[in-house]
Amino acid sequence: MTVTESGDFRRGAALFARGEWWEAHEAWERPWLTARGDDRAFLQALILLAAALHKRWAHGSLTHRNYGKALRYLDALPGEYAGVDLARLRADVWDALQGPSRPESGLPALRVVGGGLFPA
């Protein structure tokens, strides 16, 4: 089973797309605990992106430290990993962190290369 096929991963992706970032963070933590190599870096980046969004929109933090930490993991991965368009996710999260108001549900979200939401 690939990292993106697990129920916890898919639940986290759906929560993330609904703007339930803390809950997505929690869902991804279980598979992160046992993941290795690039899968672990991938999950760590997602967890940090979710934490950055949660801190921005639940606590008003403008520091974006977790986004910076996530970039270290994303920089070690290709622009697409496990079917997820990481380049777009990275840009969408940055836009959401910089925006004047909380993003609508569905933005940012994990997307497959070509644009559809993950999991399709």
UniProtKB/TrEMBL annotation:
It comes from the Bacteria. The lineage of its organism: Bacteria, Thermotogati, Deinococcota, Deinococci, Deinococcales. Pfam families: DUF309. InterPro entries: DUF309, TTHA0068_sf. This is DUF309 domain-containing protein. It comes from Deinococcus soli. Gene3D superfamilies: TTHA0068-like (1.10.3450.10).
